[in-house]
């Protein structure tokens, strides 16, 4: 995923399913300067590269 799409998902009022390494996540914050996202998952909270996020259609 690219940072622009991550920002669209983050700002959306719709529920959009996003995964990181096969685990469903919720985007908490985005940092365009480092192309990273702070995400929340069942396994905990972490910083990940936005390019590692996958949107499920």
TrEMBL record:
Its main localization is other
Picking any one GO biological process from the record gives: sporulation resulting in formation of a cellular spore
Keyword annotations for this protein, in alphabetical order, are: Sporulation
One Pfam family for this entry, by name?
SspH
Residues of the signal sequence? none
Q: What InterPro entries does the database record attribute to this sequence? A: SASP_SspH
Localization annotation: Spore core
What's one GO-annotated cellular component? endospore-forming forespore
Q: Specify the superkingdom.
A: Bacteria
Similarity annotation: Belongs to the SspH family.
Identify this protein by name. Answer: Small acid-soluble spore protein H (Minor)
- Taxonomic lineage: Bacteria, Bacillati, Bacillota, Clostridia, Peptostreptococcales
